[in-house]
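Private note to self, pasted from the team thread so I don't lose it. Backbone tokens:
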């Protein structure tokens, strides 16, 4: 009897350390799998830069920043953002509208995003890095405890387990970018997402979907990037899309053909 009880408790403990199946489905309603872009349609430069962005490059992460400075009306310039970077001092954040800027300019904000220097236009030349979105309000946006986001992942229709620690946030309202950066890093590490076929990059198409209980879902074609360099590859985050982290989960669909 004691052995049976111990076995049951061990099973429960192991289950809680991985992402459960949460309101998932084997196919996304947002984008048909046949419409997903194939990895072979990306140029080699773009594929290499996607790998660099999501796996190797450090991210801009900070809390409780404030700035009234701008370069253009759809930007906010954070002077002295980098304190120990080899090249950059300032961070120029670009949004797709002035309305978004007005929500954050002069307010206490938190930042989490992928930044780049090559082809960054604005600020002090060679001393300013650029980033699209990645901004949330600081005040009254902190969870009482860190949120670990459950992930459902299917590879060619077969569900694979994803550790529950893979994607997490301490924010009530979080940018999709923050969650997406963490998820794609895992996909690169586990599945060589942005490797070429020669270097064991077996995944040929993919879709990531961010679901919440109260808002429309947000989805990205994992190989749907435009252009070759960070200034265009990262433009999907320019809308600074945020979602409520409560009762949310992520669905990922990967295909090897």
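Design output:
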């Amino acid at each position: 009897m004691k052995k049976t009880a111990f076995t049951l408790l061990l099973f429960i403990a192991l289950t809680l350390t991985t992402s459960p199946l949460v309101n998932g489905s084997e196919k996304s309603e947002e984008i048909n799998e046949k419409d997903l872009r194939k990895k072979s349609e990306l140029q080699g430069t773009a594929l290499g830069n996607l790998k660099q962005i999501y796996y190797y490059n450090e991210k801009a992460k900070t809390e409780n920043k404030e700035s009234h400075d701008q370069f253009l009306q759809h930007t906010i310039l954070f002077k002295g953002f980098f304190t120990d970077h080899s090249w950059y001092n300032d961070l120029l954040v670009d949004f797709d509208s002035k309305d978004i800027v007005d929500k954050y300019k002069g307010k206490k904000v938190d930042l989490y995003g992928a930044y780049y220097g090559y082809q960054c236009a604005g600020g002090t030349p060679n001393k300013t890095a650029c980033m699209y979105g990645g901004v949330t309000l600081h005040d009254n946006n902190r969870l009482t405890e860190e949120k670990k986001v459950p992930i459902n992942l299917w590879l060619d229709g077969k569900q694979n387990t994803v550790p529950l620690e893979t994607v997490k946030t301490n924010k009530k309202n979080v940018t999709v970018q923050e969650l997406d950066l963490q998820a794609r890093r895992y996909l690169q590490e586990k599945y060589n997402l942005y490797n070429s076929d020669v270097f064991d990059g077996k995944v040929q198409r993919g879709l990531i979907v961010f679901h919440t209980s109260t808002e429309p879902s947000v989805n990205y074609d994992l190989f749907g990037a435009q252009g070759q360099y960070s200034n265009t590859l990262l433009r999907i985050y320019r809308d600074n899309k945020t979602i409520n982290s409560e009762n949310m989960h992520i669905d990922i669909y990967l295909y090897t053909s």
